[in-house]
Amino acid sequence: MGGTFDPIHHGHLVAASEAASRFDLAEVVFVPTGQPWQKADTQVSPAEHRYLMTVVATASNPRFTVSRVDLDRDGPTYTSDTLRDLRALRPDDELYFITGADALAQILSWKDVDELWELAHFIGVTRPGYHLSESGLPQDRVTLQEVPAMAISSSNCRQRVSDGEPVWYLVPDGVVQYINKYELYTDDRE
Ligand SMILES: Nc1ncnc2c1ncn2[C@@H]1O[C@H](COP(=O)(O)OP(=O)(O)OP(=O)(O)O)[C@@H](O)[C@H]1O
Ligand SMILES: O=C(O)c1ccc[n+]([C@@H]2O[C@H](COP(=O)([O-])O)[C@@H](O)[C@H]2O)c1
Q1: Partners of 97 in the beta sheet?
Q2: Residue 79, ligand 1, Cβ within 6 A
Q3: H/E segment holding residue 3
Q4: Is 153 in the pocket of ligand 1 (CB under 6 A)?
Q5: Domain residue spans in the chain?
Q6: Residue 56 class from Cβ within 10 Å (0-12 exposed, 13-18 middle, 19+ buried)?
Q7: What are the distances in angstroms from CA 144 to CA 8, 53, 102, 104, 174?
Q8: Domain named Cytidyltransferase-like: which ranges (predicted)?
């Protein structure tokens, strides 16, 4: 599951858990983006903070791991590179890429989109406020999956912190503590 994870929240974790359960996945690898090129107009926190929050949030689940492949590659983050790197590291594994309805709706604008379908199977999960559709996408490579509705977004979490409002229970406790410790999202953003 790729994401900017700025910060990781319970919407991400529930989607990943549900997809893992429904598709009987042996492992969910969370892959924080290096430079999310389609968020170029958004201020994104340093990659190491996003990586460490993802580690904290996933640490208690034995099936959840975190990969640095997108952080350790220079330049804009493209999922085609992510999947090629993961395949090289795990040549015997079958890869599924978990994505929310909003990201799936943009997928035709992603780099090397035709190759993406050969690199992984895509699981598109429901997300409140977005229409989940496989229209225009190869139906044998994309599966839609309903997951419990979590009306949470990273941008709203950042705004809440910036406004002095709590993010307890929107993000894992350790992530709240991490945000407080490093005083993330306290400046005026976006
Ligand atoms: N509440 C949610 N329910 C289901 N999927 C989600 C949810 N939030 C994010 N996702 C999915 O998780 C992936 C990573 O999302 P991302 O890290 O950009 O979080 P975000 O909440 O969308 O961030 P932002 O608000 O900054 O755009 C994307 O595929 C996105 O569609
Ligand atoms: O490959 C691309 O061109 C591409 C364009 C936009 C987003 N993605 C990936 O989609 C995932 C979710 O992205 P985001 O921006 O919603 O956090 C993340 O893994 C990104 O690297 C990938």
Answers
A1: 122
A2: no
A3: strand 2-3
A4: yes
A5: 2-151
A6: buried
A7: 22, 28, 13, 10, 31
A8: 1-160
Digits of tens for pLDDT over the chain (190 positions)? 999 999 999 999 999 999 999 999 999 999 999 999 998 889 999 999 999 999 999 999 999 999 999 999 999 999 999 999 999 999 999 999 999 999 999 999 999 999 999 999 999 999 999 999 999 999 999 999 999 999 999 999 999 999 999 999 999 999 999 999 999 999 754 4
Question: Which residue lies with its CA nearest to atom 13 of ligand 1?
Answer: 3
Q: Residue with the nearest Cα to atom 6 of ligand 1? A: 100
Which residues have CB under 8 Å from 44's CB, separation 6+? Answer: 4, 6, 35, 36, 50
Q: What is the ipTM of this complex?
A: 0.99
Does residue 125 have its Cβ closer than 6 Å to ligand 1?
yes
- Spatial distance between the Cα atoms of 108 and 127, rounded to a whole number of angstroms: 19
- Enter the CATH code of domain 2-151: 3.40.50.620
